[in-house]
């Protein structure tokens, strides 16, 4: 098996490559990306198209009726023509409002549904990623896909009908009408296209660059706030309030300059488009008025033309204003598409079976492994863990202890060799069936922001309250929970923040125990406990190890003294192996680590004794 299997492309860092324009490639990508999400809503989309076309057709009729009303009704003083056209206008106005309202109702629902589906798909995809993905992709990058990118996409979707489709239709039918009214006036009026489409671009580029700079500065402001809030204990303890304020004021000061430039240049872009529109408008109106005066065209024609021209100008401006929104959405879609294209590296083999209940032994069969891009390498890892035994894994920091667990839980695959359970290579069974037989307590005891009972039950949804209490008792945390005003219903706060480190750790141990696992994996699981609780818990773990298998990674040698076997890792290799007594007798790395820890403990005990004597 090649090492590339473990390699995962990290998702792009953030939006360096923003664009102001939308290329044909962008449009193709957007269509390809959105098509599967739009597919389930074919009928809704068809209804929307009919509504939009009806609205456009009704709008198309207004200028024609206006022309008729003036020329036939007002100028010729024809009551019937006046009444008919007014009646038509009234009915058409009601109809167009009704249709527009219905279209609004349909498209807002449609795009909300599509956004929900994209978000869900994204979440499911992130869920399906293997551990290497989470080790290589910054959390912020994943979060920004759900926040910035999805928001930009939703903004473009919601504005698509009123900001693009409707104005675009208006431009088309207004152009047709203008040419129908008078071909020469139509031609002059068409000069508005370059005026609105190209003229403002002189400033648009600058405005876009400023807007990008503004977003970057706002990002820095957000990071500063986020860092400040989470670093409050350090800031307060080290008296850094003044410095933090000054640093924030610095970024805020940069923002104000950028914001002024950005907002003024955006205003300039709009103003230029408007100026272009005014200039052409005056030219068209002057010529039209002259022709109406000389009877070349009717008064109704110039008035209707005027209305059509203005609405076309504004519609064209709307379309151009939609372009930056679309460009941002194109960038966001590229990010989302990249994320969705990342394939989970640790996939189950197509013919993967279910791992049979653990009966005999776990074997690391000459395993070699290294993380992509890391110089750390572990080789010829040969370990046998018999069922019902207690294996301790110790060693200096960075020696590969957690890596051993990563391989055992199949968060990563070995580059060479294999990990087997009862002779079955764990790569040949489903990851779910492998992990179903394991329970793990991580050093960082992550708790969810729900009740203690729910946090424990999470590992085994069928657990009864009795099971939960029994697990909590084993984890030496029941008395503490029972003494809380709301007992097991107490909510633990975000990341379990309302509990102490040791309490969190014991709840996490209860969570692992309630699963009644065949293999219990402990990764520095007792590091946050005081000596007394730790020793009680170790007692429990020893009892547990009699009926099931325990693999415990730890720095604290005291907690593996009674292990059936201890592996001492050093730089990714097994330096020594044996029981506590054997390793002490060998006088190697373990013995050195042990005597160092013992001296440290004695020194602490001596200080405590002195304090007691005083
Ligand atoms: N996801 C990763 N990607 C790249 N390198 C990693 C990754 N995880 C760990 N390493 C590297 O692998 C080596 C072994 O790490 P490991 O976490 O297994 O050590 P450890 O013995 O558990 O350390 P500690 O006692 O400090 O927790 C370290 O040098 C570490 O930098």
From TrEMBL:
It is a multi-pass membrane protein. One of its GO terms (molecular function) is ATP binding. Residues 362-596 form the ABC transporter domain. CDD domains: ABC_6TM_exporters. Keywords: ATP-binding, Cell membrane, Membrane, Nucleotide-binding, Sugar transport, Transmembrane, Transmembrane helix, Transport. Residues 46-328 form the ABC transmembrane type-1 domain. Belongs to the ABC transporter superfamily. PANTHER family: ATP-BINDING CASSETTE SUB-FAMILY B MEMBER 10, MITOCHONDRIAL (PTHR43394:SF1), ATP-DEPENDENT PERMEASE MDL1, MITOCHONDRIAL (PTHR43394). This is ATP-binding cassette subfamily B protein. The lineage of its organism: Bacteria, Pseudomonadati, Pseudomonadota, Alphaproteobacteria, Hyphomicrobiales.
């Amino acid at each position: 098996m090649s090492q590339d299997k473990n390699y995962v492309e990290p998702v792009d860092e953030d939006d360096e490559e923003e664009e102001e324009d939308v290329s044909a490639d962008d449009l193709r990508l957007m269509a390809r990306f959105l098509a599967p999400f739009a597919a389930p809503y074919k009928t809704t989309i068809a209804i929307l198209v009919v509504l939009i076309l009806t609205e456009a057709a009704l709008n198309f009729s207004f200028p024609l009726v206006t022309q008729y009303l003036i020329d036939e009704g007002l100028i010729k003083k024809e009551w019937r023509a006046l009444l008919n056209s007014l009646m038509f206008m009234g009915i058409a106005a009601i109809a167009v409002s009704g249709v527009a309202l219905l279209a609004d109702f349909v498209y807002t629902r449609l795009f909300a549904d599509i956004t929900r589906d994209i978000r869900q798909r994204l979440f499911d995809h992130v869920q399906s990623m293997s551990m290497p993905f989470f080790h290589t992709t910054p959390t912020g990058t994943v979060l920004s896909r759900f926040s910035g990118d999805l928001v930009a996409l939703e903004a473009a979707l919601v504005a698509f009908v009123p900001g693009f489709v409707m104005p675009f239709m208006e431009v088309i039918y207004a152009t047709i009408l203008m040419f129908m009214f008078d071909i020469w006036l139509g031609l002059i009026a068409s000069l508005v296209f370059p005026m609105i489409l190209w003229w403002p671009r002189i400033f648009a580029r600058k405005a876009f660059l400023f807007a990008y700079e503004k977003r970057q500065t706002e990002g820095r402001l957000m990071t500063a706030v986020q860092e400040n809030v989470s670093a409050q204990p350090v800031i307060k303890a080290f008296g850094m309030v003044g410095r933090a304020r000054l640093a924030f004021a610095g970024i805020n000061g940069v923002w104000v300059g950028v914001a002024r430039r950005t907002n003024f240049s955006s205003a300039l872009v709009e103003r230029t488009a408007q100026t272009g529109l005014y200039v052409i408008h005056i030219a068209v109106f002057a010529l039209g008025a002259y022709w109406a005066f000389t009877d070349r065209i009717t008064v109704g024609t110039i008035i209707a033309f005027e209305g059509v021209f203005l609405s076309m100008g504004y519609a064209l401006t709307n379309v151009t204003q939609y372009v930056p929104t679309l460009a941002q959405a194109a960038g966001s879609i590229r990010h989302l598409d990249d994320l969705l294209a990342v394939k989970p590296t640790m996939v189950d083999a197509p013919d993967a079976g279910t791992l049979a209940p653990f009966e005999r032994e776990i074997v690391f069969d000459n395993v070699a492994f290294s993380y992509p891009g890391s110089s750390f390498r572990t080789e010829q890892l040969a370990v046998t863990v018999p069922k019902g035994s207690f294996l301790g894994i110790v060693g200096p920091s960075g020696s590969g202890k957690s890596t051993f667990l990563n391989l055992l839980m199949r968060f990563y695959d070995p580059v060479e060799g294999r990990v087997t359970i009862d002779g079955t290579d764990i790569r040949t069974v489903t990851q779910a069936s492998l992990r179903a037989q394991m329970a793990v307590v991580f050093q960082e005891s992550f708790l969810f922001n729900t009740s203690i009972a729910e946090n424990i039950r999470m590992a085994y949804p069928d657990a009864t309250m009795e099971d939960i209490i029994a697990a909590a008792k084993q984890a030496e945390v029941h008395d503490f929970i029972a003494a809380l005003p709301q007992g097991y219903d107490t909510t633990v706060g975000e990341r379990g923040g309302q509990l102490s480190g040791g309490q969190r750790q014991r709840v996490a141990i209860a969570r692992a125990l309630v699963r009644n696992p065949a293999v219990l994996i402990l990764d520095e699981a007792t590091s946050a406990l005081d000596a007394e609780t730790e020793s009680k818990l170790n007692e429990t773990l020893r009892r547990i190890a009699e009926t099931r298998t325990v693999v415990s990674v730890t720095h604290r040698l005291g907690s593996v003294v009674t292990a059936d076997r201890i592996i001492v890792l050093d730089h990714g290799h097994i330096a020594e192996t044996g029981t506590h007594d054997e390793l002490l007798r060998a006088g190697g790395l373990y013995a050195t680590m042990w005597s160092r820890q013992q001296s440290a403990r004695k020194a602490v005990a001596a200080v405590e004794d002195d304090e007691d004597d005083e």
